[in-house]
């Protein structure tokens, strides 16, 4: 038993070990091993989403254990604002509710119960921004409405805690208001115009407006205690704009340099100071409001040397002003900070566990804490409102049910316990150490440490579009016809006849049936896939855009500075890290736009008909003939362009260390041609692997393939579960690897092979894909399989796609940024076209263990590895 006890101690070091695994090891006395992986008959692999004990696991693998009483708080609650008397809290919900409406919830500050739900419609529109505030006299509430370009004015009856719509005030076109503040006399409201780069002053009585210039992407606005100064946080910069204000008269005064991408601010009038949450510096700037200078900077990073990712976004003060509470969206906690002159100023006294992605915090007069979490417990199980109606199928963004936590201000002892829980949840005690390895582990070529040698000298990273695991590999089988991996064939749309190459990859190399996309949709999915993070600007923008608000699509390099989740936006993405280390790379289609989209002041030389990234470093290493997202361009055409370069690399012995490839056509353009476009995508992927495996570079190359997100379909395990492939002589084992992986695991693995540090806290903490690789290579080449679906090879690769008259996608939606069509209608259109018009489209599932006994038995027959 001593050997088993030692193994048990080693297991406890790992982040994801089920209680059943520990019990099995303790009782059985024997542990079966396969390479470096634990046999699946002993261990049950964890899954993302809500767990049976009330906790949850994010797709990135971080445990979520919110404390206090948890109350439902709508969908993606973006803020929490306490009423002047402290009896109620207002919560603006950015994502539509079950009735297709955006809402403001009025919740009881004592117990979090819902007192009123205001569904916005009619004159109020449906736009909801995080910005909502009370008038100083407590009789009115003002709400910013994002793309509706209005301020909604509500009456507030404090005796019954009810809002009543009074009017909407139009703002200048293109404002995109995100936040609102009120003048001291309540006659004027000040609104940030995030897309106009303006601060807008509005006369509440007359509706008259005026504007003043501020910095890039203004987000929050606060007014000084004397009512004479407005401060605006510029999310696209490292600055606050300071303006003198008096009614409609606004005069720019100065600019204060703070941390990267500042979010919310909090004025402490008693101490003549203001706190600023710097989202991607992971710091709080303390502003001396008598001088408008930075007096202190408080770090909220989890440990010294941590990469970016804490993402502070909101703030609250204790009633005595001694303690600052900071919502850390990236760490799923609230930091408790000493800001008094007693003890060390700026010391983090502790951390409070929250739901997934906290966005608001308030302290009530009786010292209770109110904390909103935008993503709650994750997407969670959802059966739909009407099982007989395909239209009841819930879209992934509509599964993000937020929460409001109500809890007493913790004592010192309780806070210490909470802090330990956060450290355990996020695995902070291991800091930047590579996870998953024990000292005696053998049998994998994944480096144990950054800089260790490996036989892999070349990486090809291919990103595709929007598919779940079950949509493609739910019908996966072993050679003997038995089920392989954890799939559900009843919801497979693009099975072996459509995607023979992806099926063959999963059989011949390694099956990854517990792999997750870290974002929900393309806007945050692409950020996760290329920089291992999605910052507060992008998370709010994603929720607004995909909830129907029409926010600006800022992923895939459209606006790289503001969406970059790093203290240095110019050094946030994977290619930036490669350039820092003089590692050669080449880009095919990722983050590119047509030449006409590049402004003359960007310093990028262009030619008509070619494609360019806004990012100069990426642009200098891009094939400008390779198309952007255009469903009228065949992936065969993309392969031909790439292959021309590849054959040149072979001939000249100069293949770059890394290649980035965008292969987008599995996004599809509607049900009528869905199978054909996915088959086209599969064939192109097969050809890439075929070409590499028949070349001299096969012996030292690893090809990583992943979807940017999973929004386009259902999955019986979790809506975030996706298809992924790792293709190399060192993965040609035929195993099923059911370890918990996600996009950040893939990034961490590539980083280790490349010899570079992680980009964020998320890839730093991710378990690399250790068990997918062996140290015994199989150099047999791969031969492309032709899909049996017709007419994939007759689709003409032109710049235009013939659009059926009943298509849910318009011509313009087939070109440019992904996800322009209504995603739910597109999903239903594809389902009906393939399964039949009368076959109900099932809802995505979010089960903790999957299919239970049958799957467990199947995994035993699949040479699975996993704990």
UniProtKB/TrEMBL annotation:
Entry's transmembrane regions: none
The keyword Lipoprotein is assigned to this record: no
Organism: Neobacillus massiliamazoniensis
Signal peptide start and end residues: 1-39
SUPFAM superfamilies in the cross-refs: Alkaline phosphatase-like, YVTN repeat-like/Quinoprotein amine dehydrogenase
InterPro entries given in the database record: Alkaline_phosphatase_core_sf, Host-pathogen_enzymatic-act, Phosphoesterase, Quino_amine_DH_bsu, WD40/YVTN_repeat-like_dom_sf, YNCE-like_beta-prop, YVTN_b-propeller_repeat
GO molecular function: hydrolase activity, acting on ester bonds
Lineage of origin: Bacteria, Bacillati, Bacillota, Bacilli, Bacillales
Keywords recorded for this protein, A-Z: Hydrolase, Signal
Listed name of the protein: 40-residue YVTN family beta-propeller repeat-containing protein
Keyword Ion transport: no
Location of the YNCE-like beta-propeller domain: 53-342
Pfam family, one: Phosphoesterase
Stretches for region Disordered: 840-867
């Amino acid at each position: 038993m001593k050997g088993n006890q030692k193994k048990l101690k080693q297991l406890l070091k790992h982040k994801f070990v089920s209680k059943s695994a520990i019990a099995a090891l303790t009782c059985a006395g024997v542990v079966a091993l396969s390479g470096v992986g634990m046999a699946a008959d002993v261990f049950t692999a964890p899954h993302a989403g809500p767990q049976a004990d009330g906790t949850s696991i994010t797709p990135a693998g971080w445990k979520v254990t919110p404390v206090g009483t948890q109350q439902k708080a709508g969908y993606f609650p973006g803020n929490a604002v306490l009423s002047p008397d402290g009896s109620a809290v207002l919560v603006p919900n950015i994502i539509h509710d079950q009735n297709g409406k955006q809402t403001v919830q009025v919740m009881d500050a004592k117990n979090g119960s819902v007192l009123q739900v205001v569904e916005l419609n009619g004159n109020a529109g449906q736009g909801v921004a995080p910005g909502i505030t009370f008038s100083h006299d407590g009789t009115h509430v003002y709400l910013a409405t994002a793309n509706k370009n209005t301020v909604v004015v509500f009456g507030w009856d404090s005796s019954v805690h009810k809002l009543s719509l009074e009017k909407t005030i139009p703002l200048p076109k293109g404002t995109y208001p995100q936040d609102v503040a009120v003048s001291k006399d309540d006659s004027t409201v000040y609104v940030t115009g995030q897309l106009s780069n303006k601060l807008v002053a509005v006369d509440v009585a007359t509706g008259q407006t005026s504007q003043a210039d501020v910095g890039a992407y203004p987000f929050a606005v606060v007014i000084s205690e004397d009512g004479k100064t407005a401060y605006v946080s510029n999310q696209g910069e490292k600055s606050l704009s300071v303006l003198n204000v008096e009614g409609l008269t606004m005069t720019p005064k100065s600019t204060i340099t703070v941390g990267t991408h500042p979010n919310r601010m909090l004025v402490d009038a008693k101490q003549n100071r203001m706190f600023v949450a710097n989202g991607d510096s992971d710091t709080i700037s303390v502003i001396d409001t008598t001088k408008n200078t930075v007096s202190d900077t408080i770090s909220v990073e989890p440990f010294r040397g941590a990469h970016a990712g804490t993402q502070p976004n909101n703030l609250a003060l204790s009633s005595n002003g001694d303690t600052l509470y900071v919502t850390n969206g990236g760490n799923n906690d609230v930091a408790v900070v000493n800001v008094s002159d007693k003890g060390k100023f700026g010391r983090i006294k502790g951390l409070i566990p929250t739901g997934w992605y906290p966005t608001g915090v308030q302290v009530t007069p009786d010292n209770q804490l109110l904390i909103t979490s935008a993503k709650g417990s994750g997407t969670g199980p959802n059966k739909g409102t009407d099982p007989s109606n395909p239209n009841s199928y819930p879209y992934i963004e509509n599964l993000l049910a937020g929460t409001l936590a109500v809890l007493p201000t913790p004592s010192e002892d309780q806070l210490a316990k909470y802090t330990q829980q956060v450290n355990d949840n996020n695995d902070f005690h291991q800091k930047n150490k590579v996870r998953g390895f024990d000292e005696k582990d053998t049998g994998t070529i994944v480096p144990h440490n950054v800089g260790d040698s490996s036989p892999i000298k070349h990486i090809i990273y291919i990103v595709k579009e929007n598919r779940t695991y079950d949509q493609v590999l739910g019908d996966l089988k072993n050679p003997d016809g038995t089920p392989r991996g954890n799939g559900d064939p009843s919801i497979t749309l693009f099975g072996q006849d459509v995607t023979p190459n992806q099926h063959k990859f999963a059989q011949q190399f390694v099956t990854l049936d517990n792999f997750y996309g870290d974002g929900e949709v393309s806007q945050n999915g692409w950020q996760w896939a290329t920089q291992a993070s999605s910052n507060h600007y992008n998370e709010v923008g994603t929720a607004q855009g995909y909830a129907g608000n029409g926010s600006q699509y800022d992923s895939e390099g459209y606006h790289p500075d503001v969406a970059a989740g790093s203290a240095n936006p110019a050094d946030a993405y994977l290619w930036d890290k490669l350039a820092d280390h003089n590692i050669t790379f080449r880009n095919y289609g990722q983050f590119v736009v047509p030449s006409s989209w590049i402004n003359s002041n960007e310093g990028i030389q262009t030619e008509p008909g070619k494609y360019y990234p806004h990012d100069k470093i990426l642009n200098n290493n891009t094939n400008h003939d390779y198309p952007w997202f255009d469903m009228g361009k065949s992936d065969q055409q993309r392969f031909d362009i790439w292959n021309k370069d590849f054959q040149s690399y072979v001939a000249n012995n100069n293949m770059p260390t890394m290649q980035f490839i965008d292969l987008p056509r599995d996004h599809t353009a509607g049900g009528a041609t869905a199978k054909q476009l996915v088959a086209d995508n599969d064939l192109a992927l097969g050809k890439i692997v075929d070409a590499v495996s028949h070349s001299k570079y096969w012996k030292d190359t690893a090809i990583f393939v992943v979807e940017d997100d999973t929004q386009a379909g259902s999955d019986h395990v979790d809506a975030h579960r996706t298809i992924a492939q790792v293709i190399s002589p060192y993965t040609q084992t035929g195993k099923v690897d059911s370890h918990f992986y996600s996009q950040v695991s893939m990034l961490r693995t590539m980083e280790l092979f490349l010899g570079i540090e992680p980009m964020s806290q998320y890839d730093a903490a991710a378990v690399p894909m250790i068990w997918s690789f062996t140290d015994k290579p199989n150099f047999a080449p791969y031969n492309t399989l032709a899909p049996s679906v017709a007419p994939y090879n007759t689709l003409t690769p032109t710049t235009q796609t013939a659009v059926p008259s009943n298509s849910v996608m318009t011509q313009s939606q087939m070109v440019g940024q992904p996800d322009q069509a209504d995603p739910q209608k597109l999903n239903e259109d594809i389902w009906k076209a393939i399964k039949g018009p009368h076959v109900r489209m099932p809802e995505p599932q979010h089960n903790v263990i999957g299919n239970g006994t049958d799957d467990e038995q199947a995994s035993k027959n699949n040479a699975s590895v996993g704990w």
